Structures are given as C-alpha cells and as structure tokens.
Amino acid sequence: MFIVQIASECAPVAKVGGLADVVYGLSRELEIRGNSVEIILPKYDCMRYDQIYGLQITYDNLWVPFYDHHVRCSVFFGFVHGRKCFFIEPHSNRNLFNRGVFYGQNDDEERFAFFCRAALEFIWKTDKQPDVIHCHDWQTGLVPVLLYEIYQNLGLTHPRVCYTLHNLKHQGVTGEHILRASGLNRHNYFFHYDRLRDNFNHSAINLMKGGIVYSNFVTTVSPRYAWEIRNTDLSYGLGDTLHRHGHKFGGVLNGLDYEVWNPETDRHISKTYGIETIDGKYRNKEALRHRFLIRDAYKPVISYVGRLDRQKGVDLIRYGIFYALVTGAQFILLGSSPEHGISESFWHLKKELNDQQDCHLEIGFNEELAHLIYAGSDMIIVPSLFEPCGLTQLIAMKYGTVPIVRDTGGLSDTVFDADYAPRPYHERNGYVFRDFDRRGLESAMHRAIGLWHAYPQYFRELMINGMRCDYSWNHPGQDYLNIYEYIRKK
Ligand code: ADP
Prior knowledge:
Layout: E1 2-6, H1 18-32, E2 36-42, E3 52-66, E4 69-80, E5 83-91, H2 108-125, E6 132-136, H3 142-151, E7 160-165, E8 173-174, H4 177-182, H5 187-190, E9 205-206, H6 207-214, E10 217-220, H7 223-231, H8 239-244, E11 249-251, H9 280-291, E12 301-307, H10 314-326, E13 330-336, H11 340-352, E14 359-363, H12 367-376, E15 379-382, H13 392-398, E16 402-406, H14 409-414, E17 431-433, H15 438-454, H16 456-468, H17 474-488
Helix pairs in contact: 2-3, 3-6, 9-12, 10-15, 13-16, 15-16
The structure holds adenosine-5'-diphosphate.
C-alpha cells in the first residue's frame, strides 16, 4: 500500500511531543511490513537539520493558492533516519514557518491551513495517488476537507483519509477567514454545523471538526480516551460530532518505537542493559546523578519528563517534587513550557531548589538527555489531568522505571497498579491513583517509595513486569493496516 502521512511533527526533526514519535514510529512499522510511506511536513527553520540526510530541493515552483493570490513554494526531500520526508517551504514575506518555534503564533491556524493546501497541491501536481492519506490533529484537519471538496474534482480520486486525534484540547477553532484563505469559497455551505462550524462558538469554524466530518475513518490514541471524548467533558465540545460519526471512529493505542527507545541498544545512555542485565541500570543512575551533581546515597530517583502544561498537572508535579524530597527521595525534572507563567514558576522553583543535593530541574527540551533520565530513574510520575495516550509511561516501563500515573486515558490502558489492579501479579507494572489532587498523588508515591525501601525484591519484579510489556508498534501497526484496508474498499 502507498501511504502518505501529512503532519506538523515527526521525530526527531520536528518534535514537540508524542505526535512526533507516532508519525515516525508508525511510518517505520508500516514500511517494515512492506508498504511505501512518505511523510509531508512544513520546512520549519527550527528543525533538527542535523537529523536529515541528503536534504535537497525536489520540486521548485509549487504555486499554492492562498486567499486571492498564489504563494510559491519549494519542496525539499530528505531522509529522517530512513523515512522519506518532504518539507514544504513557502516563499512568502509572512515567513510562515520561519518563526523559531513550531507553534504558539497568533496566526497558527492560517499557517497550517496553508500547509494543508500546499501538501495536497504537491500530491496533485506530482501525480501521486496514495492509497491512504493519514493526517493528524487540528493542524491537518483541513486535508480531508480540501481533498473531497477541491482535489477530488481535479482528479485526485484514489486516496482515502484516516485522521488521528491526538489531543482534543487543541481543535483549531478560528475565524471564517480560514475558509477563504484555503479556497473553500462556498461560505454558507462550509460554515454549517454539519461541516466546519464550531458546535459552541457560533461565529467560528473548527478545523478538527472538519477533519472528523470529512475523513473516511477517525482514530484516537487509546481506547479509554476514545470513550472519554465521547462521553465526558474531555471532548471539549466535540462529543456530539464524534457520536454522529461514531460508525467510523475507534481508539488504537499508540505504539512505541523500540528501535529508538530500547535500553539494550540506546546510544544516549551510559550503560546498555536488559531484563537479564538489569544491574546495568544502576550505572545509568550513577551517571545521571553525576551529570546533575546529585549526591550518591541510598535513595530512589524519581523523575518527570514532559511538557509543562496544565494538562500534565503542573501543580501536582510541583507537589511531587516536594513530597519526594521530604520523604528522602531524589527528584529530576526535564520539561519546558511555551506558556510564560508556567515557565517562570518552574524557573523560580529551580532557583529555590538550586542548592539541594537531591534535586535537579532542567528546563528545556533535550531529546538525548531524556534517554538518560528514563534509564537512570527508579520511578517516574505522570499526574495528568487527562492523557490521550501518553508515551512517557511506556518509555519508562521499557527502561525498567516504575510509572506512577493518574487513572485517565491511555495511562489507564497501560499501567496496572501493583496493589489494586484486577490482574495477576506478573501483569502489574506501576502505581495508579484516581483523584486529581495532592492526596491522590501522595498516596501512590508513598506506596511506591515504601516498596522500594522495604521490599526491593518486589520492586524489582515490578520493574521487570514493565520491561516485559509489549507496547511496540507491532499490534497497532496491524490495526492501522486493517483500518486502511477497510476504508480502501468503501
Ligand atoms: P504529549 O504528546 O502530550 O507531549 P506524550 O507522553 O505522548 O506527551 O509524549 C511526550 C514525548 O515528548 C516523549 O517522547 C517525551 O520523552 C518527549 N518530551 C517531552 N518533553 C520533553 C523535553 N523537555 N525534553 C525531551 N523530551 C521531551
């Protein structure tokens, strides 16, 4: 099968969070299974160009309609760790993708609407006829709309669209001008509740809603989250749309690329290790402590790796740091936030805890360092308010690091409580708490730290149970192929 992924992120070149890992990992799995995969991305100035091999212009003078004019684009091709990637560069004085950041600009909706139009224009002009176009999140929600309303009439009749929702908190709710910008000119037709009009903000359009309405199949990234966004306020207003389109909607748990995340082969860690050689993990704990000048002591290292966002439970993360320290554990944090207030508060906390020998906060994005933290920690906390899938707990488990997570979304589907899960002991792999408050987190951390001190042998079993789990792309890769086959025949 020939699959084109259109996305705003792909690891490791353009990564903000899990979306990037999914686009890369799924593409790799599909290729291993004999399919041909191409990935189309914007050409951001802030990409990791050191991770692209053989970057060169492959198509110049791609003229893309935008409002009442055309913007000339160059399309580059390069390999990202073996994946075939196209990067679209618009030559416009608006510098659409030369902003030094991926997201967070006032005109994000316009930037990505343009990207959708450009990606389809490229597919059409180069006469590609993919069997499936797989697009992701609000940034590419317009792809199926443009395909079925414009490009199909121009001859792009073959592709079917699979659309994956990674986070419903961000839907691309924006003004009607985006319709004009992208050439969807029949205003009354598109600005309708059956199509792009937002369910609650009556004067706005919703790009994610457009993606759901027009795609042939819609997935989200875990079965639990699929239930939550249909039946709770985690849908952020799209529950009704998902119910209406329920016949073409399902949850597929994200996989993890064990080629990238594998303690047996990881080049970024101090000592590789596996289940049989788990003692090697302690060399990484030493290296981690050494790197951050944390003292060597008989204490567990607890960590947090991830975006510092309200979704991730920033107040609970902060509380978790203090709770770890007062109970005699050590804490390491790696995270960043584009939100000024949150960033500021963690810088403040960093200064406050600067002289602590048991704690280090690293504020920023550092892919290589993340590997060492997963390898060198004993436990990791993921106290999210909601979590569509969550990759940090999956990575942690692969590295024998015990996850302490809140009972929500993909965390509930993948972490099974050491004491209370209705599962056999050998399937229990972490700690889970229900209430999104300090007592909830504290009770789970208390149990985890307690086991580490009192019953190291049982703690080690938990670590190994996590390492044995198979959260690779093997199963979800097949699930996606089944979905692709299904929509091709429709
Ligand atoms: P989300 O997609 O909501 O950000 P996920 O848990 O699905 O959360 O994926 C997070 C991914 O981003 C993981 O691969 C994690 O290691 C990585 N990550 C997040 N923040 C950082 C950071 N500051 N430095 C390095 N890697 C990070």
